[in-house]
Design a protein that fits this description.
- 4 copies of one chain form a homotetramer.
- With 346 residues, chain A is α/β, with parallel strands linked by helices.
- A 7-stranded mixed beta sheet of chain A has the order 2-8-7-6-5-3-4, with helices on both faces. Chain A has a 4-stranded antiparallel beta sheet with strand order 9-10-13-12. In chain A, strands 1-11 form a two-stranded parallel ribbon.
- In chain A, helix 1 packs across helix 11 and helix 12 runs parallel beside helix 14.
- The interface between C and D is medium-sized, with 22 and 22 residues.
Chain lengths: 346, 346, 346, 346
Amino acid sequence: MLYFNCDYMEGAHPAILERLAATNSEHTLGYGNDPYCEAAREKIRQACRCPEADIFFLVGGTQTNAAVIKGFLKPFEGVIAADTGHIGVHEAGAIESGGHKVLTIPHQDGKLTAQGVQRYLEAFFRDGSCTHMVQPGMVYVSHPTEFGTLYTREELAALRQVCDDYRLPLYLDGARLGYGLAAEGTDVTLPDLAALCDAFYIGGTKVGALFGEAVVFPQKNRLPGFFTLMKQQGAVLAKGRLLGIQFDTLFTDGLYLKISAHAIAMAKRLKEILSQNGCPLWFDSPTNQQFAVLTPQLQQFLDGKVSYEVWQELEDGCIAARFASCWATRQEDLTELERILKNAVH
Amino acid sequence: MLYFNCDYMEGAHPAILERLAATNSEHTLGYGNDPYCEAAREKIRQACRCPEADIFFLVGGTQTNAAVIKGFLKPFEGVIAADTGHIGVHEAGAIESGGHKVLTIPHQDGKLTAQGVQRYLEAFFRDGSCTHMVQPGMVYVSHPTEFGTLYTREELAALRQVCDDYRLPLYLDGARLGYGLAAEGTDVTLPDLAALCDAFYIGGTKVGALFGEAVVFPQKNRLPGFFTLMKQQGAVLAKGRLLGIQFDTLFTDGLYLKISAHAIAMAKRLKEILSQNGCPLWFDSPTNQQFAVLTPQLQQFLDGKVSYEVWQELEDGCIAARFASCWATRQEDLTELERILKNAVH
Amino acid sequence: MLYFNCDYMEGAHPAILERLAATNSEHTLGYGNDPYCEAAREKIRQACRCPEADIFFLVGGTQTNAAVIKGFLKPFEGVIAADTGHIGVHEAGAIESGGHKVLTIPHQDGKLTAQGVQRYLEAFFRDGSCTHMVQPGMVYVSHPTEFGTLYTREELAALRQVCDDYRLPLYLDGARLGYGLAAEGTDVTLPDLAALCDAFYIGGTKVGALFGEAVVFPQKNRLPGFFTLMKQQGAVLAKGRLLGIQFDTLFTDGLYLKISAHAIAMAKRLKEILSQNGCPLWFDSPTNQQFAVLTPQLQQFLDGKVSYEVWQELEDGCIAARFASCWATRQEDLTELERILKNAVH
Amino acid sequence: MLYFNCDYMEGAHPAILERLAATNSEHTLGYGNDPYCEAAREKIRQACRCPEADIFFLVGGTQTNAAVIKGFLKPFEGVIAADTGHIGVHEAGAIESGGHKVLTIPHQDGKLTAQGVQRYLEAFFRDGSCTHMVQPGMVYVSHPTEFGTLYTREELAALRQVCDDYRLPLYLDGARLGYGLAAEGTDVTLPDLAALCDAFYIGGTKVGALFGEAVVFPQKNRLPGFFTLMKQQGAVLAKGRLLGIQFDTLFTDGLYLKISAHAIAMAKRLKEILSQNGCPLWFDSPTNQQFAVLTPQLQQFLDGKVSYEVWQELEDGCIAARFASCWATRQEDLTELERILKNAVH
């Protein structure tokens, strides 16, 4: 069986496991007050060219989004997001559980546009009863998006401008950030994100770590008390060094980008294989998630041979299927996929 | 100046003020434990033909919706509502503040359809990742809706059936219930609501009272602890008898329906005046809210003479305007409106 | 039967009912945007000698406390209060429902002391694990307290100093504020409160109104968005003028203080009658709530004749009973109470 | 430097690291739907002799407590706990953040007593205004407690009886459960807990795992929707198998109890060393946490040589210090501690 369902089916990059084993019997203070976390923070600050940044490590994406958003918003504010945004759909109401509404705007290829946000805000404040409605309190984007698409630096700068005009924080969910940074043709870098966002997170879970996300607040003390908020939200790991060790490893010698680039190369190959073997692309994604249309016959043929994620049901029994590569995808699995598809087609 | 903005611009029906004055110096226990509340409850039970109903009095609609919905839902559940529903738009995130998402379905004339809810639920539970999403936990409808429209008994029965199939409570927001019950052609009665809903509220604020809403749980002890929940939500009035006196008055000798019928008669006249004098109906509503299209010229002409609510901006500078009648609307104001409009047109 | 249970057993001062009747058929905008609310705000600003104050009207005390406290606190902060404070005991967890812990300090005659708060804060921040604990985010006091006691100006100034040292807002719950301002020997005035507090509320429900509390933020725009927060918390009255009319009446010609002074005179007489007729004072209160010890025999004797509130069970079957006067207490009821007690004793 | 600060300063038992490495490149479904989680659940069910139990894996203790308590309580209910309970003190208000008050009762050696809970409940429901107060909705105990003490089976059975009388769920926080089960003289076993509790959790973080807690609901489907609640609370690990692998390892060949027994043996030795070398026991604990009194001189002497946790400041500059053993404590570290202390004393 070949697995292309998602990018969190394997464990961690071997270098991480080695460091966990090598440090296993050391004694360190808990909750992130250890030298490994501090070293990882320093390396991330350098990668972001942002020497004053506050950096916190959390275990998973839902809790990261919930904590950051709760930290930024006043009780009567909501977060603007694309209607496809992860926080509005697949986090079981974590934002609402914290008391806040997700204010959705129709997406463009999974993205918010500056123009769309601007129009939303203009209309909101023009409405005579706007004080009776949830106030827009921040803007949430994901990069890559749920569709694998990417913002350009110009698009992010335009969003930043709208946020400035309305004094809204801009927060970027980077669950798959590595695959965005390593994509072909992107002009968005970590220092760009540090310059444009009030907060963003560098995803580890889907990019080589066992688990872990690193939240970056480029401006020091941007959210005072954030550690206590994390603790309250159940998002502080007792043995915090496990996160420090992982991110320190990922940010040593550019490992994070190296393994991301591998996933991108694999995704490019995946795209060729799919599109050239009877699986037309449903959506053109420059990152590690590829979306292809599968006929009912092909679905049946692949059953038990290739595993993927059903993304959306289309007409005539076709589906849009997601095939994800990741840091761990092997060339031989792609070769095998190609062989299988060729058998199917002919 | 003529005022048709909304149905809460005046005080209360004079009979209510008289009773408040007559009972002013009496001593009663607080928080709804007084003979007036008990008498009002008994009269409402009779009007609903539901002798076992639990009945609670709250001050306003937003707090009523928030308390009832919080009472029914588990923490990870949301409430299904039309995308135009009051709870999703004009209550400043009260439902989310209580931790719950409003799960919206596109409306049909302001209403949910049984078919639409059914499709939503089928699709939800078919989705492989549905346990990662907010669980649908109850259904919210308003009657009349935000557009002044009404459900038929058959439509409500169909919604009830879907709710039964999925074991979801059905809750009806009756902020303007009187105007629904008194509308021409409706076949929905209070006993019908008691038979079909797990909870509904009889609106007082917009139908003759100074303030106040009466929540009816037809099934005794349907939500144990609801009083404490109300207290926690800040929805218990210390001098609870003020609510009892008002509802007792409204449910004595059919006053609630009588004054509602007056508003409906005024609305019918309003509809004629508008549509026959250059203000085509934007929407056909059988209840006390009427919606008409006003040209820019007419808007300018009415400025300072007639007050209404801008409902929605249309193209070419036209607007959809809401003109509301209520229990207090006077025949002479309509005559004057007609005179003004005739001057405008000719 | 004589009723001394509490100070919210009657309706409203007759002047309020008259104004409600006189204005009943007027049309005004909703939600506090009416001339009566504006006039009341202006009179309160003058009474507080605080021309810039933001003033909001809410219906009841629990919702007022919940909204103000939610407005001041960050998600990971709690509110410091005496362990007897109303918010910690008799509001059904309204503060916790908003996500915040009540951080209790043992009371001194129902009061917080500056020294007690200082010690608490010093110990808190000295604790190495204080970032794992709820951060103290504001200080709550009530004046009069639950025991009817009062702060002196000096005591409040000392609390203010501690709050300044730790940058904490000071909030004063004035559910019975009139009875505090009118007490004999107090040196605390409305302008003092405006000078010393970040927010306080002037209670109407227990001091002559049908219902209603007026929140005063002496500093303009101290809590931006507070109206929307109120709306979200279900604390905005649609017919907001009902609150404006009541507070405008209470703050015309010093009515609020006049009727409070009456209650204090009645309480003084009550104290004499109780203590001189076999009901020793349990606690010496300068305001409208008096606490006396009743023997089992006396309790039995008074049964069906005099109604009071059981405050606390003492040993040997004795109880501490609360007898409350209010703006509506009549001289003749006290005379009758004296007669009854004399019969009991002899 | 010797470290006895706490029981989460090292990584994991080597067998766990080995299994993580061995399984690293396997593909499994996420979120706990993998064979390792299933195997671990089955082994835990067997250890609890509870073949129908629902078992969920979470990452840390605070999130576990928050999720379980939120799952059991209605919005207006609170959780009864000892005033020393972890949920009330060191979890940054996680329970209040979920909307619930922690209802504290004075502890007895860190424990709740059935009698104390019974008295609390009797007094609560006797209070005439109890519907205005947070309703007691469940009982929380920790075993071992914050003081390292243990319940007897009889004590737990008595608590169970009170819970049954008042229909309250009983929940046991087992962050250090292994050290409780392996303590000398205890008669409480996993099957006992399964028989007596509505839910409890088996702590991994402090007992040999990198991280992870296993919640056991002995009765199948006791909390429907708990997975979605976990997801909403940010408590679901994407690579869920990491938790399954750890608990499967801990529950293979009795590893969990074996390493716990080692910690207990080390704690016994620790107790001897401390008490025989000038550090009288402050508290007698049968588990892995030992508490000793250190004079100022001794504190100074140990500085830079031995690390411990300051538990409480006592008079005369003495402190109560916590020395914790754990699964990883080495005999040689204890020998070294003894040597140091002997030098200090003489």
